[in-house]
Input
Amino acid sequence: MTGTLAHTDGAPLGSLASVRVVPGRLLSAAAADLATHLTRSGPLPYREGTGTGPLLAEVEAAGLTGRGGAAFPTWRKLLAAAGGGQRPVAIANAAESEPASAKDATLLASAPHLVLDGLQLAAEAINAREAYLYAKEGPALILARRALAERRVLGLDRVRVRVAVAPNRFVAGEETAVLNGIEGRDALPRDKVRLPVESGLHGRPTLVHNAETLAHLALIARRGARWFREVGTAREPGTFLATVNQPGSGPVVVEAPYGIPLGELLSLAGVAGPVGAVLLGGYHGGWLPAEPGLRLPVSRAALAPWDATPGAGVVLVLPPGACGLDAAARILGYLAEQSARQCGPCLSGLPRLAQLTGELATAGRLAPAGTGRPDPRLPGELTRLSGLVSGRGACHHPDGSVRMLRTALRTFDADVAAHLAGRCAAGAGQ
Ligand SMILES: Cc1cc2nc3c(=O)[nH]c(=O)nc-3n(C[C@H](O)[C@H](O)[C@H](O)COP(=O)(O)O)c2cc1C
Ligand code: SF4
Output
């Protein structure tokens, strides 16, 4: 494929050494060892049995939202988890199941204590007795285990933190799959009858937060809401970690404020050449053409009219000349293959969508000019099937997958027309 997208085979990022980092406020506070971390960041505040009150007020004033993809207000989850009758549980979700993402592993490796501080503060605030760090085996988890041992020597963690190993599977990072994984079952999403904050790990109220969310929380606790709001937009304050992938080079993790124009984010990541299109928000995200995509601010509000979202900050750059349909078909094939196949939309809908998208993508390359053209009803059938799949799964996997396809068909409409005519406008595979 021209302009091969990174990691479409779902292989884990083998070595963090290949990840380039452009730090901001979060990553520049990073220190791998505890002594440097405490000197740099100061002691943990809010530890005198104050309950949820003060931390929750600060997090609410800061406007912190989850960095795991859905951007849910963090203070609401803290409040809900603390309000349950039984002893709650707190979980740091560092599964990073999105194959093109490297930000959580990078954060965990370079600032493990910031993530663990956030987990500890959140756990203490909701009165939890148990906490978990859920992450894939790899260099980041080795460093996080070392950090946990350092904290144990100093008696820093009042709530005991256990490590649970996440399998390398796309849906394993979904929050109810996380619960199953920690309970020792297959890490597949549950039928969400009740939210994890109501009934989570072994039926107890459970707070599941992305590792980056917890690191931001640890800084907000120390530096305050006003500091957090100094950057970003009024509705979406603070910074976020993006993983920028472009063909031919390793992923770059960049910290940037919400609202940064997409083109500027790519420049920070060192994307130099011309851009054809961008997939923003990862495999569940939305495709944008370079124009006006690169001018759009990276924020939920600005991207919503484009059916796109910052998600967990994953960006895939497609160079001009690469076939967008081919890229979309490969990603959809991966997503269909990675589903838990527990619900109808994933069992039959995604595989069929992947097959038809594959047919449309290969049509432009395989059909000799003017012969063996694909069925002109293919795009209509894709749209119809997408509508049947949306909103019908136990988790958001089908919805996200269909968003990626829907925005691909819109962004690459010229490619669709060319493929239907038996040509590939992008010249892929010719
Ligand atoms: C298929 C799927 C995979 C997901 N994978 C991850 C993941 O790897 N890491 C993560 O933090 N959240 C992941 N999420 C989102 C989680 O379900 C959950 O919303 C998140 O961990 C909550 O943390 P936050 O409030 O800090 O964002 C995934 C969601 C879906 C639907
Ligand atoms: S929607 Fe798909 S991925 Fe989600 S629980 Fe159902 S089968 Fe699994």
User: Anything to note?
Assistant: Residues 239-318 form a domain with the Ubiquitin-like (UB roll) fold (CATH 3.10.20.600). DSSP finds 18 helices and ten strands in the chain. The chain has three domains: 19-228, 239-318, 324-420. Residues 66-70, 72, 93, 95-98, 170-171, 173-175, 208-210, 213, 395-397 surround flavin mononucleotide (ligand 1) (CB under 6 Å).
